[in-house]
Amino acid sequence: MAARPTAPEVNSDRQSSEEPNGAGRPRKPQVVEATEQQGASMELTVKNRKPGLGDRGGAEPLAKPPTPAVWTIEASEELYRINGWGAPYFSINAAGHVTVSPKGDRGGSLDLFELVNALKLRNLHLPLLIRFSDILEDRIERLNAAFAKAIARYNYAGDYRGVFPVKCNQQRHLVEALVKFGRPYQFGLEAGSKPELMIALASLQTPGALLICNGYKDREYIEMAILAQHLGKTAIIVLEQIEEVPMVIEASRKLGIRPVVGVRAKLSSKGIGRWGTSAGDRAKFGLTIPEILQTVEMLKAADLLDCLQLLHYHIGSQISAISVVKDAIREASQIYVELAALGAKMRYLDVGGGLGVDYDGSKTNFYASKNYNVQNYANDIVAEVKEACTERKLPVPTLISESGRAIASHQSVLIFNVLGTSEAPSHNAAPATEQDHLIVRNLWETYEGISADNYQEMYHDATQFKEEAISIFNFGYLSLPDRAKAESLYWACCAKILDIARQQEYVPDDLEDLEKIMASIYYINLSVFQSAPDSWAIDQLFPIMPIHRLDEEPTQRATLADLTCDSDGKIDQFIDLRDVKSVLELHPLKPNEPYLLGMFLGGAYQEIMGNLHNLFGDTNAIHITLTPQGYHIDQVVKGDTMTEVLGYVQYDSEDLIESIRQQTEEALHNKRISLEDSQLLLQNYEKSLSRYTYLSA
Q: Does some domain include residue 173?
């Protein structure tokens, strides 16, 4: 199944790299490498993809590039795509370790492997979440610089005021850091619930910064937002439901304060991918055009039409195609100028979130990537809004974006260790003899006959013989030793076929699962449900790779299995240049040596949306800033202890200890345990309750 090529579309003005190639999950029609530099236009290099590599449902890309005679750092860079998704923050040094440059291309780096080892000596056990505050600052600076450049380029007479959606990561230290770093840019916050409003009201004290109040609202929420004006805050109540309009009118009369109000519009322009339904007539939030007009009339009747000052829309998270951004801002701009013509005192246009993150480094409109950079995004928004306002001779609005993923994703890295492995089934190709069962002999002949010319046919034959072996075994016509021989020969055939398939330019569809079938399982000290819930819930891709030994060739192919007693507690989809691969290239474990992996770009949503499956709690987290001397540990947030997670489900540790004490006393009375062992059991039980929920290395 060949991919449909789409020509890139780039110029020095507002054009983007690539238009979407249909609804739903797009394929990667091309590989487009882009440099995303502050204030620089996107530089593109287009490489043709190999045929037969469609989306996840197509042929699995088993084939691999030629392996260098001596493995190099450059080979690891290409394999793990770190220069694609990691620039300018992550790279590989000469020692074969991942490095972090928290200030981007402004200089300074840390060896991540050495950093983790130093943190372990501080009694900070794995898994460990490391937040780099400097990256957060750099992301804010780059976003604001892009809009500043676009405003200057198009002679836009308005301003840009970014806001961070608190829902993206509510962690206190992160929100506080974001407010601090955003102060020079009057960067604000967006609250989507009453608890988030509480956070925003207390945390945001930046003069001129905006507080956008979204989500479902009750009278308490609305009154709180209106009263915030007395604290010098610009709190804008965005009307999401028509039922909120009379509540705002009533609260205004009750408090004697004129609110600042916005409306969220349901655009006809839709996003693509998982969040494509965030816009459109049946979107969860927002007002239809008739409802917006009804709102205008209700506010006008209440003498509050001048309070309507903002238009908001949201077309979904992780917008991968710039064309979607263009369509949405074009429609929203027209709604904005029409509201102004109706008498509303329009001042703000909020384009919502959606600014994408390139998780796989391909720079395409694939759902885990994006075919534009931040500068393209800012240029298109500024230019379109200016054009619409100029045509209607209206002042341009202050532009607002609610970028969360693009701000927070890069700032944290999750480090975890491998506990052990489970290899593929034994594939001993012992020659068959005349005394062996016919099925065994057939499988041996199949194994001997496998070549590059017939490997697909031989795979079908081997599979058929294996199925026949199981069938006749179930009817009692095949002994257990003969079945064992048959299965060993089948796996030997698979191994031989896989070696050949990996060298081919194109692998047939019916062999797509072979790599996964033959993969090892690497057991990781991690709960997917706690630390990477989107990987499990919505098939989100995150870059995962070893943080050391990158000067060695990774000879193993593996999937990852977590600590939970759940078959879904695994990661078996990984980023790839061409598509999504089902296995990750890893190194064989060395005796008594830790093997450390990192999950990158997980700073948005993953840290806050996790659950307590099997009572694995929050991981240890540490906040680090770069210094001339190396680094400084700003904050250490200890992960959950067993006592803490048990408390979440209403267990009292003292009650548990008392239960064990009583049981040991009964066992002592019945002479089932010695006094020494009973005390050892009690001591270990009590100590365990105060310890980390994850396994010790």
A: yes
Say yes or no: 336 and 460 in one domain.
no
CA distance 427 to 517: 13
Mark whether 340 and 445 lie in a shared domain.
no
Angle at 24 between CA 18 and CA 27, to 5 degrees: 50
DSSP label of 355: B
Instruction: Give the residue from 10, 470, 24 showing the smallest Cα distance to 277.
Output: 24
Is 479 domain-assigned?
yes
Together in a domain, 336 and 472: no
DSSP string, 26-56: ----EEEEEE--TT-PPEEEEEEPPTT--ST
* Pair 50, 565: CB distance under 8 Å: no
**Integer Cα distance of 557 and 422 in angstroms:** 11
For residue 589, what are its two tokens? 């474990």
Taking alpha carbons only, the member of 309, 288, 195, 183 closest to residue 240 is 288
Cα 649 → chain centroid: 28
Tell me the average confidence (pLDDT) per consecutive run of 10 residues in the chain, 697 residues long: 35 38 40 38 32 36 61 97 97 98 94 97 96 97 98 98 97 96 98 96 96 96 96 96 97 97 90 62 81 98 98 93 95 97 98 95 92 97 98 97 97 98 83 93 96 94 96 96 94 93 85 88 96 93 98 96 95 91 96 97 93 94 94 95 95 95 95 95 95 90
Do 378 and 317 contact (CB within 8 A), yes or no? no
At position 129, the amino acid (one-letter code) is: L
Q: How many domains does the chain have?
A: 3
Radius of gyration of the chain (CA): 29
pTM metric for this prediction? 0.88
Check: CB of residue 519 under 8 Å from CB of residue 558.
yes
CATH number, position 226? 3.20.20.10
If phi > 0 it is left, if psi is from -120 to 50 it is alpha, else beta; for residue 215 that is left
What are the angstrom distances between the C-alpha of 576 and each of 60, 98, 272, 288, 569? 11, 18, 21, 40, 21
**C-beta of residue 49 within 8 angstroms of C-beta of residue 578:** yes
Are 213 and 269 contacting, i.e. CB atoms less than 8 angstroms apart?
no
